[in-house]
Design a protein that fits this description.
The chain is mainly beta. It has 2 domains: about 1-75, no CATH class; about 80-435, Porin (Beta Barrel), CATH 2.40.160.10. The chain has helices at about 10-25, 40-55, 70-75, 170, 330-335; strands at about 80-90, 105-120, 120-130, 140-150, 155-160, 195-205, 210-215, 230-240, 260-275, 280-300, 315-325, 340-345, 350-360, 365-370, 370-385, 390-405, 410-420, 425-435. It has a 16-stranded antiparallel beta barrel with strand order 1-2-3-4-5-6-7-8-9-10-11-13-15-16-17-18. Strand 2 and strand 3 (about 120-130) form a beta hairpin. The radius of gyration is 26 Å and the shape is globular. The two termini are about 30 Å apart.
């Protein structure tokens, strides 16, 4: 199919050649000196010349084929990106009068991403988040600021602020879950958005068939942690089907991988929480111990597995996670406080929790015009059995996702029934979208 000469792709390519050619070129040399030409630069110029002159798109079947994005990734060491998640949420009895549905328009996440490499084995990642306080004032918060020393897949070191070794949901983050809301049953300690300051070593075998992570982090350094004891965290993951390379993971791959992954996480911090007397001195100091096991199964159902019209080549996903949090009975200590005594830490964290989720991604694209996507109905149930009698207890959540471009463009609509420990319950209806660039 022919196309107009001045397409968006051609204009971008022409701009890149004109503006960034000096980046690839060698220093100018005189006519009497032999210039050493970078072969990658020559390939790039040739590719761009052919792309600009040809009435057809370059063929992906060409063994030397690279997109413009491929060349930019190869030659530029810094990458930029952004992510936005926004929702409209109506929750029963949550309006200011206490009797009607709230109508909340939320900016759930607004993130800027920066990453790159100084050397092939030394990289960095700097991500930020726009946060709002109760008064509506907005500010930037450092999300990730990490130096990555990665000499070999078997042994790597990260240092700075980043996600500690933890559960699959936390290592997926809100943009890479199979549902919009982050699970409330995940209650591991964090400085901000699941992150903490520290250092970790990690590695993998066979491209991510087996992975391990271990780190030391700031953890809770409140008034009862007089010795400034750090948080220790570790995780093991076994992938029985396709591997999941790298430190992070996702909670769905939309059929790009067949996954059967089992992960186990443990955390410990001495004197993490406790109680203080009226003078601010430590009355009781308690240790924190956390444990998690999670399982993800995802399979694209070919005709040899499911030969049913409208279902063949669909993707089934099943996910489950169990959590255990132990604060040495901080909730009981909090109930026995005398006048003026206070609690340092979350008195409502101790307990057990779990989540289960199932979804099916239909293979057919539906839409109108240029807007095309696939439907993914899902169901998630979360339960938190707390030692205390305060806090959210259970959430029942049926919903549907409209997958436009994987995790980069997705629209979600879902219903939630929320049960609280005191016996009350409420309904919530949510329409949400997430986009990454």
């Amino acid at each position: 199919m022919t196309r107009p000469f001045f397409t968006t792709g051609r204009l971008i390519a022409l701009s890149v050649v004109c503006v960034f050619s000096p980046v690839f070129a060698e220093d100018p040399v005189s006519t009497n000196e032999a210039a050493e030409v970078d072969p990658e630069y020559e390939k790039f110029r040739q590719h761009m010349d052919e792309y600009l002159k040809s009435p057809e798109e370059p063929s992906p079947e060409d063994p030397d084929y690279k997109t413009l994005s491929d060349y930019l990734d190869d030659h530029f060491k810094v990458k930029l990106g952004a992510g936005i998640r926004t929702s409209i949420r109506a929750t029963e009895d949550s309006a200011p009068d206490g009797d009607t549905f709230s109508k909340d328009f939320n900016l759930d996440n607004a993130r800027l991403y920066v990453s790159g490499k100084a050397l092939d084995y030394i990289g960095f990642e700097f991500n930020s988040e726009i946060v709002s306080d109760e008064g509506g004032a907005e500010d930037f918060e450092v999300l990730d600021a990490v130096i990555k020393f990665e000499p070999h897949e078997f042994f790597n070191i990260w240092a700075g602020r980043f996600l500690p070794p933890s559960d699959r949901s936390n290592l997926s983050g809100p943009f890479y879950l199979n549902a919009y809301d982050f699970p409330f049953v995940q209650a591991f300690p964090a400085k901000f958005a699941g992150r903490d300051n520290g250092v970790a070593t990690w590695g993998q075998l066979d491209g991510g068939k087996f992975k391990w992570q271990a780190g030391v982090f700031e953890g809770s350094n409140g008034a009862v942690n007089k010795q400034d004891n750090p948080l220790f965290s570790g995780r093991l993951v076994l992938n029985l089907l396709d591997p999941e390379p790298g430190y992070y993971n996702a909670s769905t791959y939309y059929g790009a991988k067949d996954i059967l992954a089992i992960g186990v996480t443990g955390m410990f911090q001495e004197n993490s929480v406790g109680t203080l007397d009226a003078g601010g001195d430590v009355r009781e100091s308690n240790n924190f111990t956390g444990f998690n096991i999670d399982v993800l199964f995802e399979k694209k159902l070919g005709s040899d597995t499911l030969d049913i019209p409208f279902l063949t080549d669909g993707v089934v996903t099943l996910e489950g996670a169990y959590y255990l949090y132990d604060d040495d009975d901080l909730d009981e200590d909090a109930q026995n406080l005398l006048l003026g005594e206070t609690v340092s830490g979350d008195r409502n964290r101790q307990g057990e929790s779990f989540l289960v989720l199932g979804s099916f991604l239909f293979p057919q694209e539906i839409g109108a015009g240029v807007v095309r996507g696939r439907l993914q109905p899902y169901f998630r149930y979360q339960k938190y059995d707390r030692s205390s009698s305060t806090g959210l207890e259970a959430v029942i959540e049926p919903g549907i996702n409209y997958i436009l471009d994987g995790h980069n463009a997705r629209i979600s609509a879902f219903y939630q029934n929320l049960d609280v420990q005191n016996g009350s319950s409420s309904d919530s209806f949510v329409l949400a979208g997430q986009f990454q660039f």
